[in-house]
Specification:
This protein is an alpha/beta fold. It folds into two domains: about 1-185 and about 335-350, Rossmann fold (3-Layer(aba) Sandwich), CATH 3.40.50; about 190-330, 3-Layer(aba) Sandwich (Rossmann fold), CATH 3.40.50. The protein is about 40% helix and about 15% strand. It is built from 13 helices and twelve strands. A six-stranded parallel β-sheet has the order 9-8-7-10-11-12, sandwiched between helices. Strand 7, helix 8 (about 210-225) and strand 8 (about 225-230) form a beta-alpha-beta unit.
Length: about 350
């Protein structure tokens, strides 16, 4: 089957890039021919005209593009406005995964990521699409528009339990919670090769604040091992090592996570790959209104005790720092969820 995929593949985000890779690989493994709709928003176009953008992200963009050229399927030509008639002919359109339905990220392009540009008779499904917010706070006009567009999907699969709730309670539509595509792949050794473990705490944090710095210092004091800040643009003396984003490809990033003794993160894909590589980890919440992505996955796998919303809550439960995650139990749950998610995806495509 020919599939046109719409996702946030172009971002210089590790998670966005790796979920695109995983989605495409899974679909191709099922025997489908995938084309990525190379849609980019106007904000991206404006960034490229900025000298600051190229000074801060130029090398990163090259590294990401090299990864995409090697590991992504074919992409359409770069487009900033989608004309259905100019897209490759496809039997199916898929929207997902990641935060492509987060109004604060995609902004005016929310209807685009819900396929407002394709005829009503064209089949469309979503897979692991995320609203990325704890509460739906859009106005009635936007809500009605979203309801109308989502009602045209033959199958709705979302990544978080809050997404299911939004669909059922607000949009009056049925939806299925499924795993992020990165969690459906059993083995990433084809990308990262052999890994040598390091006695190192790796921190991948989107929100850097004093609570985080205090927590890292406290954890380092208990475990007596070095700390490293991953994918940073500006070096920090609060860490023993700084791995700069300018020189970090998606593969290097995965290798850093895989070799860590402990991972500290507030990133969904930082959490996902900690689980994939069977790492001990701590989730230190960043922005409180963006925790649903993390809590939903932790709850699914019975790992809520690894989540902390403050430095004080971490100190009160410091025994977690010296306890290992029971990955026999986690993997048992994960395998069942993988089977469910893959079967749902197969059925969505053929039915």
């Amino acid at each position: 089957m020919k599939i046109n995929l719409l996702t946030m593949h172009y971002s210089l985000s590790i998670g966005a890039t790796l979920q695109t890779y995983a989605t495409c690989r899974i679909l191709e493994k099922m025997g489908h021919e995938v084309t990525i709709i190379n849609f980019k928003d106007k904000v991206e176009l404006k960034r490229r005209k900025s000298i600051k953008y190229w000074l801060s992200s130029g090398t990163t963009k090259i590294l990401f593009e090299l990864f995409k050229q090697k590991h992504f399927p074919k992409r359409t030509k770069e487009i900033f406005h989608i004309d259905y008639e100019k897209l490759p002919k496809a039997d199916l359109y898929i929207s997902g995964s990641d935060q492509i339905w987060n109004p604060h990220i995609v902004d005016e392009n929310l209807p685009v990521y819900m396929f407002n540009f394709i005829p009503d008779n064209i089949k469309r499904i979503s897979y692991a699409s995320s609203f990325g917010v704890n509460k739906w706070e859009q106005d009635s006009e936007t809500t009605q528009q979203v309801q109308n567009l989502l009602s045209k999907f033959s199958h709705l699969a979302v990544r978080e339990d809050t997404g299911v709730k939004f669909c059922t309670d607000i949009f009056k539509l049925n939806a299925k919670q499924v795993l992020d595509p990165t969690l459906l792949i059993d083995d990433y050794s084809n990308l990262i090769g052999n890994i040598r473990l390091k006695d190192e705490i790796v921190c991948f944090k989107l929100s850097l604040n004093n609570d985080f710095y205090d927590s890292v210092a406290y954890i380092r004091g208990i475990l007596k091992i070095k700390t490293a800040l991953l994918h940073t643009l500006i070096p920090s003396r609060k860490f023993d090592k700084n791995y700069f984003s300018l020189f970090e490809s998606p593969i290097k990033w995965m290798r850093r996570i895989a070799s860590a003794k402990l991972v500290i993160t507030d990133s969904f894909h930082g959490l996902a790959f900690s689980i994939i590589f069977k790492k001990n980890f701590i989730v230190l919440a960043g922005e409180k209104n963006k925790t649903t992505r993390l809590l939903s996955l932790l709850n699914t796998l019975g790992l809520n005790e690894r989540y902390f919303d403050s430095y004080e809550s971490l100190r009160k439960n410091k025994n977690i720092l010296v306890s290992d995650i029971d990955y026999n139990n986690v993997n048992s749950i994960l395998e069942e969820k993988k089977k469910e998610s893959l079967q749902y995806l197969r059925n969505s495509i053929i039915k």
